[in-house]
Specification:
The protein is an alpha+beta fold. The chain has 4 helices and 5 strands; from the N terminus they run βαββαααββ. It is extended and about 45 Å long. The C terminus is likely disordered.
């Protein structure tokens, strides 16, 4: 995970909608970093791109990950996917 300044992001992607948080005179947004170290990595990045399109539509996102992943998440056993429940109810990457 990284952050990108709004001025930099908007210069490169002027029509993309993002949420920015103001900090000390500039606004920032989260940015994903991907490393394509194997040919198979491109397949994973393509899948993640499809999943990100539904990040604000939880039921469609759950359909992409499949019913087993959804069930494990709801049971609090999502650590195999790289996340876990935070004590305050939010998700934290492990």
């Amino acid at each position: 995970m990284a952050a990108v300044a709004a001025s930099v992001f908007r210069r490169r992607y002027p029509h993309s909608r993002r949420t920015f948080i103001p900090l000390r005179g500039e606004s920032f947004s989260g940015a994903n970093l991907f490393g394509f170290l194997t040919p198979e990595a491109a397949v994973a990045a393509e899948f993640w791109g499809r999943a990100e399109a539904f990040r604000k539509r939880p039921w469609r996102l759950a359909r992409i990950f499949g019913p087993a992943s959804l069930a494990l998440f709801l049971l609090g056993r999502g650590a195999f996917l790289g996340y876990q429940r935070h004590p305050l109810g939010a998700l934290a990457l492990s």
